[in-house]
Amino acid sequence: MTFWFHPEALAEYDEASLRYKDIRPRLGRNFVNAVENAIEVIVEHPTRYPETEPGIHRYLLKRFPYKIFFNTTQQRSGLLSMPSCM
Predict the structure, then answer these.
(1) Exposed site from 11, 24, 56, 57, fewest CB < 10 Å?
(2) What mean pLDDT is predicted for residues 6-30?
(3) For the domain bounded by 2-81, which CATH number is listed?
(4) Which H, E and C letters describe the chain, residue by residue?
């Protein structure tokens, strides 16, 4: 299965990772690792996470106040947005 980022979701991800890196470089790396781990889990078990509307699922990041909204088909999963929960 392949995984893709919607351009706006990629911008949200980049902005958040830079913000955490500015606070503390290790925090930025931890955020990137948390997102990468989430993507691995999503790709393996996309339907494990609740649907917020038809075809759109939500994953809550651990340790960081972000949600990952994604859609999935048998071939691809796509990260649609990464809003902060704050």
Answers:
(1) 24
(2) 93
(3) 3.30.2310.20
(4) CEEEECHHHHHHHHHHHHHHHHHCHHHHHHHHHHHHHHHHHHHHCHHHCCEEECCEEEEECCCCCEEEEEEECCCEEEEEECCECC
